[in-house]
Amino acid sequence: MATTSTPGSSPGPEDESNLFDDELVGLDPDDPEARKFAEHLDRIQRVQPGYTVEGYISGVGDFADSANRLGGHRKLMAVILVVLIMLGVTVAVWDAVVFAVTTLFGG
Hints:
By secondary structure, this protein is mainly alpha-helical. It has two domains: 1-69, no CATH class; 71-107. Helix content is 69%, strand content 0%. It has four helices and no strands. The radius of gyration is 21 Å and the shape is elongated.
């Protein structure tokens, strides 16, 4: 089994050598494609709870990293998704502020 790195950190040289020794036997560690595949395996095998704040923020970070790696219409769809989420948050905050002001000042 491969060692996993701490959430939010990139794998260090020891982790990469362990990964190439354990799971990617026969692949050249200096090959850029093999390194990208090793990073992909590290992201896939990383275990962290999604129900904690740290897990949620790490998941958002993984989404942002994935969106930055994408190109074309997929990146555009990720941007549209983020804009829609931010719009929903803005509307919810605005409604909460209006409710608080009307409750406090009896409007």
